Amino acid sequence: MKTRHVTLSPRTSLSLRLFAGLIEEGRLRKGWTRDELAERVGVGVVTIRQVAKGSPRVAIGTYFEAATLVGVSLFSDDLDTLRREHDTQRERLTLLPKRASRQHDEPIDDDF
C-alpha cells in the first residue's frame, strides 16, 4: 500500500505538535509508559510514538482518546456542558444550507 504524504500549513503543524506535547506531558505526569497508554487507548505502541511526534497520519480519534485519558482538556471537562455545546452546534448547523456552493469564479488561494 502506498503511503500518502500529508502537507499541513505551518499553523496546523505547530498546533498538532503542541497537542502532541500536551498528551506526552500528561502521560509523563501520570507516570505511564507509552506501552501503558497504548493499551489504554487500544492501539499499538508505534501509534503512540507517532502521537508523541505529532504525526498527521494518526486518526484524530486516537489523539482525542489519548488526550482524554491523560487529562488534556478538549472542549469541556463537564459532560453535561459538552452535550449542551454539541446540541447547540447541531442546531446552528441545521440553519445553514445543506451544501456549500461557490458564489463567484475567483480561484481558491490555498498556497501556504
UniProtKB/TrEMBL annotation:
Q: Which GO terms describe its molecular function?
A: DNA binding
Which InterPro entries does the entry mention?
Cro/C1-type_HTH, Lambda_DNA-bd_dom_sf
The residues covered by the HTH cro/C1-type domain are: 23-50
- Annotated region (Disordered) at 93-112
Mind telling me what this protein is named?
Transcription factor, MBF1
Q: Which organism is it from?
A: Litchfieldella anticariensis (strain DSM 16096 / CECT 5854 / CIP 108499 / LMG 22089 / FP35) (Halomonas anticariensis)
Instruction: Read off the lineage from the record.
Output: Bacteria, Pseudomonadati, Pseudomonadota, Gammaproteobacteria, Oceanospirillales
